[in-house]
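Continuing the series of single-chain predictions for the mutant panel. This is the parent chain; the variants come on the following pages.
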Amino acid sequence: MVEREYIQPMIDAILSVGPFIVENVGHKELNKKPDGTSVTEIDIEAERRIMSQLSDAYPDVAILGEESGYDEHNLPVKCWLIDPIDGTSSFICGDKAFTTMAVLIFDNEAVACIINNPSTDELFYAIKDRGAWRNSKKLDLGAVPVPNSAFVKKSFTEQLHTLLKPVRISLITPPQGVGYGMAAVASADTAARFNFSGGGHVHDYATGILLVEEAGGVVVPLSDNDVSIHSKSFVACHPEIADFVREHRESLIAIEKQFS
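Parent structure:
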């Protein structure tokens, strides 16, 4: 089982690059990656700085980054996956919704994760079967009431509005950033994040899924039968509305298909 001390070098590396990222907020020199997504030189340099600090920390674990690339369908048995700036659009616009994320994978299972928001000094991390934390406070969604709002992309708002009336949850279009949205669910800042047929890669979603589950939340798969590190279509939610989401899973899948 992974211990807190084991992930400390990654936490330290991610925290150390935070000031560099923040001081470059608003950087607008964009390049396009082969998959069509945007990247700045700050993404690339932040990833380089993180990796340079970890050269001796994990001799038995591959350290892979979004910007240097990896094959998500052929992952090493043990690996860290790093996203130096998740939410590049938010970073460019100066929205405080960009984060640095990392997830530790053992045998195709997420066993630890880190999400750091350098703008707000909020560090989230989770260890499988041990729990999740926001800075030094352990998270427990079962001990807090359901928030009255949920995150969903604007294009799905109209379809979901009627469906969610019974649970009296309003819909909010969040700023761009998966890590930000999943951390908001884990810390009860929002009731759910509806992730309909997301693009992206393992580091984009496996990180937040583990955080939400270890915080006591529930992740309901949509297009897949089960949740895995490859899940991109799901609802991450507060445990009190999980049964409602499961009950309406087919309706949610139908809404998703309208835009696929």
